[in-house]
Amino acid sequence: MNMIERLKPKAGLRVLISGAASGIGAAIAEAFLEADAQVYICDVDASAVDAIQRRLPNLHGSQADVSKRVDVERVIDDVRSKLGGLDILINNAGIAGPTGGVEDIDPEQWERTISTNLNSQFYFLHKAVPLLKQTSDAPAIIAMSSVAGRLGYAFRTPYAVTKWAIVGLVKSLAVELGPDNIRVNAILPGVVQGERMDRVIAARAQSLDISVEAMRDEYLKKISLRRMVTVEDIAAMALFLASPAGQNISGQAISVDGNVEYL
After folding, report:
1. Is 89 exposed, middle or buried (0-12, 13-18, 19+ CB in 10 A)?
2. From residue 68, how far is each of 72, 119, 156, 234 by CA, in Å?
3. Stretch 70-74: mean pLDDT, rounded?
4. Exposed/middle/buried for residue 25 (C-beta within 10 Å: 0-12, 13-18, 19+)
5. Burial label, 71 (beta-carbon count in 10 A; 0-12, 13-18, 19+)
6. Backbone angles phi and psi of 215, in degrees to 5
7. Domains of the chain: which residue ranges?
8. 118 with 163: CB under 8 angstroms?
9. Secondary structure letter of residue 119 according to DSSP
């Protein structure tokens, strides 16, 4: 196998991506389909699942609230039925959570953020790891963390807590699952272009009582390359980690962020 071939994931890989009807997850799903993988997605937004399946007819998918264990178990059962097994698990689902001082955060919003961003990853791992142990096709787990998983993030503590926890989860599982030849890594996106980031910037601007334009400039000043990353940048890293070129990369928290210096 030459170097170019090593950079391509093996054709036919069975891939499950959570929270993948839009944004980063959808970009990853499309990239793996282009790499001739069999891809299953789930998302809380049923209409968005229908829309992406119309656009990508080879894509398998279903509606699921990943904060609910019963929904995750149903997804895994459907993956086993539709794909016949699993080679790559990408725990991507997550929400931004509330913005505000710790004394002002609604405890129910805190719990919803923890459940969606962190508990869901455990629910998928608990049911998917037995399937990954059954495959010989370079099984791998990719967990979506954030630059907020390596830096403190004032007024976004629920989100930051989950993203730091995901890094700890990945590093622990890399040790635990390495003897089973399962690689486990986290991707830490930075400021990603798109509607979700627009909403985050607007909410943070409101909490600090400044304009949205000023808040956007503040975000860019924190990035060494002075630009946001794209969903395609994140998808490219996921493809690399699933390829033969990434066969000895495990236990890593890999930032794709233009080098965010602080938050």
Report:
1. buried
2. 7, 9, 23, 26
3. 98
4. buried
5. middle
6. -65, -40
7. 10-190+230-245, 192-228
8. no
9. I
- CATH superfamily membership of 10-190+230-245: NAD(P)-binding Rossmann-like Domain (3.40.50.720)
0.90 exceeded by pTM:
yes
Structure tokens that stand for 71 in this block = 């929904």
| Structure tokens that stand for 259 in this block | 């080098």
Note whether 182 and 129 are within 8 A (CB): yes
Per-residue pLDDT tens for 77-97? 999 999 999 999 999 999 999
* CB-neighbour burial class of residue 212 (10 A; exposed 0-12, middle 13-18, buried 19+): middle
Q: Which of 40, 123, 153, 159 is catalytic?
A: 159
40 given a catalytic annotation: no
